Amino acid sequence: MEDIYPNLLSPFRIGNWKLKNKITMAPMTRGFADDKTGVVGDDVVEYYRKRAADGVGLIITEGIIISPRAKGTFNLSGLYTNEQVKGWRKVTDAVHEEYGTIIAQLWHVGRLTHHEVAAGLPPQAPSAIRAIGHVHRYGKPFDRPEEMTEEDIKETIKQYATAAHNAMQAGFDGVEVHGAHGYLIDQFNSEVSNHRTDEYGGHLAKRITFMKEVLQAVMSEAGDNNTIIRFSELKDDAPQYKWRDPETTIQTFTEAFKEVGIKIIHPSVHQFDKVLLRGQTFHEVVRKHWDSNIIGVGNLNPEMAETAIQNNVINLAAFGRPLLANPDFVTKLERGKPLEIYDSQKHLIKLT
Ligand SMILES: Cc1cc2nc3c(=O)[nH]c(=O)nc-3n(C[C@H](O)[C@H](O)[C@H](O)COP(=O)(O)O)c2cc1C
Questions:
Q1: Residue nearest atom 21 in ligand 1 by C-alpha distance
Q2: Going by DSSP bridges, is the β-strand pair 275-277/280-281 parallel, antiparallel, or unpaired?
Q3: Which is catalytic among the residues 183, 200, 241, 342?
Q4: 183 tagged catalytic
Q5: Exposed, middle or buried: residue 230 (CB in 10 Å: 0-12, 13-18, 19+)?
Q6: Residue 317 region, left (φ>0) first, then alpha (ψ -120 to 50), else beta?
Q7: Dist CA 131 CA 194 (whole Å)
Q8: How far apart are the CA of 313 and the centre of ligand 1, in A?
Q9: What secondary structure does DSSP assign to 103-118, as a single string?
């Protein structure tokens, strides 16, 4: 059925990655690692192996925490101990045996946690402003965070770099920095959670300094061609939040990405075809300011993805929930078979 989806199903090269097609597995936290050690087991190995064997072009892992204080709920995997690296090595070996490409999403939740979940210490954030809402799968309200000192910031950037180094040691083909959805990096980026008066706060171009420094540190470990940045207007703790001036915001972000030398960006939105501004979607506005690679995402279906790639709005198309419901997603598209509809009651409770 390459005839139906000639763009989506044809191979793609980025740097050293030779992707079988443009289908990308969106990063999805599953919570199946050992809660104490953050090590993944054979069930996680088989879960990713299956997607690679099916032929998914690029697999982006679940959010992987970079330190104990980066943890926002139970059973998250990490990339800061030797055992964690060994666990992930089994996953990358399995994916490579199937000729797949897999990158690790690096995650720090910042203030969206509770000290009882995150190493017994208060959450860290750009400012000491408590988020509204409750800790995922724990139910307690988010703790009031500690304002990070410049020392804490340097330390955290180092932890991102170490996690990127560990990811490459574990055999990953690269990393994605999770700069979206209201987590630590996005907390620095946003005027709601960042009230700092030093070089990490102020107007947007200054608030994104932390993100730029994280990217520089990560890219020096993982390589310029192997590093993706995910960013969004969307905040998991504030669904109603809107950028005041989306076009200028996007332009400020893309200029920063060009400055640091990023080659692949992953703008995240709930609904890919929703208009953001003057009849244009988020990804269409991003494309006006960005010539290099864009990953599209947000309740995409294969038809929408095919058209968006054909029209050069995006280069790769990420699917989340459809890939949970259909471990044989690519095969089904190739053979023109119907897809199973995602059902959280059925598809989230176990790894299939
Ligand atoms: C169970 C689940 C877990 C998710 N975990 C993450 C995550 O760890 N990191 C992230 O950036 N996005 C996460 N997301 C968002 C997805 O990457 C994706 O952007 C979203 O599901 C929209 O794509 P879809 O409509 O194809 O599912 C998660 C989504 C789901 C459904």
A1: 320
A2: antiparallel
A3: 183
A4: yes
A5: buried
A6: beta
A7: 12
A8: 21
A9: EEEEE--TTSS-TTTT
Q: What is the distance in A from the centroid of ligand 1 to the CA of 197?
A: 33
| Bridge partners of residue 13, in order along the sequence | 18
Backbone dihedral region of 119: left (phi > 0), alpha (psi from -120 to 50 degrees) or beta?
A: left
Using CA atoms, how far apart are residues 12 and 20, in angstroms rounded to an integer?
7
Residue 2 has pLDDT above 60, yes or no: no
Structure tokens at 187: 């907390």
Tell me the whole-structure pTM to 2 decimals: 0.98
Q: What 3-state class would DSSP assign to 181?
A: strand
pLDDT tens digits, 210-266: 999 999 999 999 999 999 999 999 999 999 999 999 999 999 999 999 999 999 999
Strand partners, 295: 316
Superfamily of domain 12-347: Aldolase class I (3.20.20.70)
* Ligand 1 neighbourhood includes 304 CB (under 6 angstroms): no
Q: Is 72 in the pocket of ligand 1 (CB under 6 A)?
A: no
Q: Are 82 and 166 in contact, with CB atoms under 8 Å apart?
A: no
Domain boundaries, the chain: 12-347
Tell me the pLDDT tens digit for each residue of 260-286: 999 999 999 999 999 999 999 999 999
- Residue 35 three-state SS: coil
CA dist 249 and 244 (Å) reads 8
Rounded Cα–Cα distance for residues 21 and 23 (Å): 6
Q: Which of 340, 303, 304, 345 lies closest to 325, judged by CA? A: 340
